[in-house]
Design goal:
CATH superfamily of the largest domain: HUPs
CATH architecture of the largest domain: 3-Layer(aba) Sandwich
Structural class: alpha/beta
Strand content: 5-15%
Distance between the termini: 43 Å
Order of helices and strands: EHEHEHEHEHHHEHEEHHH
Number of domains: 3
Number of helices: 11
Radius of gyration: 25 Å
Strand order of the largest sheet: 3-2-1-4-5
CATH topology of the largest domain: Rossmann fold
Helix content: 40-55%
Length: about 350
């Protein structure tokens, strides 16, 4: 039988519409435990997404943590004697790159071990990597490390909850729209018959496949990602064109200067769709072929040294991160730089 909730609480911090209510909930929980155990502590930790080059890069995290501490002390005034509950704030991972939920979980778990914390309260809208959903995979990774994890039951409804309720209709509409446009693009716009039969075919397709074609329901981020993809498509075509010229040179060169090799690297993307996009983009670019992907580890066959260097320079990876996580997510080290950093350690 599990015991009472712990009085040693860790709260990951990031800008969100429910952060204020999450702080209030954590303070109430700490005050309740302080009354029962005599003391409680709440640590607010801000994991930084990318490596910070100078102190100016820490101004935003520190400002948010200061605001959070002010909220916490204001809330504590209504709950208990301030001497019973202690607050600590910390900026974490300022000297490394965090990409996936596993990276954030590792950073938070290390901090929890250092401070003797064993309970984590997560903001239900916590998205430190931009627009990418992270709460559920982060909870899973933290629970694997032995921490007690819970989402703050904030009163304000979250976007994620609304998506669960409306997911079926959103999936149906997305598959219907894509199928209908594809039907009309292939069959043409000859008349009413095409519009009617196209709508019927799209409806049948959506009814049969909408629940299995999309693992997650489209949300408010989907239109933005589609717009970013329109920017990404010309970039990918340009990369393909450049690689074609390089491959033509290699094929026509008398000495056939090839240097085939299987390259392995851990990509800074997660989730089925981003990983698929990066893997297919690599394969579409002549000179490289995605052989296998295990979690985030890519196994890529490269035909020449130059194609391998271009791959490890990370241009495609940054572009895919732009599509799914936003412009700020492009500011990361390349796979080659990350590999060199690991080797130095």
């Amino acid at each position: 039988m599990s015991g009472p909730p712990s009085a040693r609480i860790l709260v990951p911090v990031g800008e969100s519409i429910t952060l204020r209510n999450t702080v209030a909930y954590a303070v109430r929980e700490a005050a309740t435990r302080a009354e029962a155990e005599g003391a409680a502590t709440v640590h607010f930790a801000y994991p930084v997404t990318g490596r910070v080059a100078d102190q100016a890069g820490l101004e935003e995290p520190r400002a948010l943590l200061e605001r959070v501490e002010v909220w916490a002390r204001d809330d504590l005034g209504d709950e208990a004697d301030a001497s019973n509950v202690a607050f600590e704030t910390a900026v974490r991972a300022a000297d490394e790159y965090l990409f996936s939920p596993a990276d954030y979980a590792r950073t938070l778990n290390e901090y929890a071990e250092e401070q003797g914390l064993d309970r984590v309260i997560i903001d239900p809208e916590y998205t430190p990597a931009g627009s990418a959903p992270m709460v559920q995979p982060l909870e899973y990774e933290l629970e694997r490390s032995g921490l007690t994890v819970e989402e703050a039951p904030v009163e304000r409804p979250t976007r994620r909850a609304r998506l669960v309720r409306g997911g079926g209709l959103a999936k149906f509409a997305s598959v219907f729209g894509a199928s209908y446009l594809f039907y009309l693009a292939i069959g043409g716009f000859a008349g009413t018959f095409d519009f009617v039969t196209g709508a019927f075919s799209a409806a049948v397709t959506a009814a049969l496949l909408s629940q299995i074609s999309l693992s997650d329901a489209p949300d408010t981020r989907t239109p933005v990602r589609l717009l970013r993809f329109l920017v990404y498509a010309p970039f990918l075509l340009w990369e393909i064109a450049k690689a074609n010229v390089t491959m033509a040179y290699v094929v026509l060169h008398p000495s056939l200067p090839i240097d085939p090799k299987i390259e392995r690297f851990e990509a800074a993307v997660w989730g089925d769709l981003p990983v698929m996009t990066l893997a297919n983009s690599i394969t579409l670019t002549p000179g490289t072929l995605t052989v296998d992907v295990i979690d985030r580890e890519f196994h890529v066959h490269s035909l020449t040294r130059s194609s391998r260097e271009d791959l490890l320079a990370g241009a495609l990876e940054r572009a895919v991160r732009f599509v799914y996580y936003g412009r700020d997510a492009m500011a990361i080290a390349s796979p080659e730089e990350r590999r060199a950093e690991v080797d130095d350690e």
